């Protein structure tokens, strides 16, 4: 998100306002409590099963989801809003200022994040069934796709530019 906001020099103060003032503090609190919950869950499982080989699963921010929100949700909204302000485009929302554009993009991204969480919780209700029905290779396919996308795309481009 910071890179999207830094694309225009006028957005730099807003970048600090949103990223440093809202996103990072919320992410820090979320990570703290989530990791504390997983540590408690690991200790609970260790005590319940009488085992000493239990490890708590670390919790983190999903980078692919973050990039998807930045480039698929926030960037188009900001591009449309900035074009409208510059008089070079049309918009369904009449943006009055740069502050309004960034604020609107942030609000829509937050709403999208909440909706994504609700969908994840609903899908979790059928998780055990999916695990039984779908083969393990099918469950690993999204992980492999993310790996190929973020680790291999640059090299694929170089290979296709200069084939043997």
UniProtKB/TrEMBL annotation:
<feature type="transmembrane region" description="Helical">
    <location>
        <begin position="108"/>
        <end position="130"/>
    </location>
</feature>
<feature type="transmembrane region" description="Helical">
    <location>
        <begin position="142"/>
        <end position="161"/>
    </location>
</feature>
<keyword id="KW-0472">Membrane</keyword>
<feature type="transmembrane region" description="Helical">
    <location>
        <begin position="65"/>
        <end position="87"/>
    </location>
</feature>
<keyword id="KW-1133">Transmembrane helix</keyword>
<protein>
    <submittedName>
        <fullName>Uncharacterized protein</fullName>
    </submittedName>
</protein>
<feature type="transmembrane region" description="Helical">
    <location>
        <begin position="23"/>
        <end position="45"/>
    </location>
</feature>
<keyword id="KW-0812">Transmembrane</keyword>
């Amino acid at each position: 998100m910071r890179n999207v906001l830094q694309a225009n020099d006028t957005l730099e103060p807003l970048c600090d306002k949103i990223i440093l003032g809202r996103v990072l503090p919320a992410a820090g609190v979320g990570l703290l409590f989530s990791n504390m919950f997983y540590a408690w869950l690991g200790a609970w499982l260790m005590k319940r099963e009488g085992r000493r080989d239990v490890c708590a699963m670390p919790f983190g921010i999903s980078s692919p989801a973050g990039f998807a929100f930045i480039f698929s949700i926030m960037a188009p909204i900001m591009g449309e809003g900035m074009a409208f302000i510059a008089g070079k485009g049309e918009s369904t929302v009449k943006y009055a200022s740069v502050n309004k554009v960034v604020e609107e993009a942030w609000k829509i991204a937050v709403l999208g994040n909440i909706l994504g969480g609700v969908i994840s919780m609903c899908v979790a209700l059928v998780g055990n069934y999916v695990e039984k029905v779908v083969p393990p290779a099918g469950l690993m396919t999204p992980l492999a796709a993310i790996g190929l996308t973020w680790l291999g795309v640059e090299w694929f481009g170089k290979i296709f530019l200069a084939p043997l």
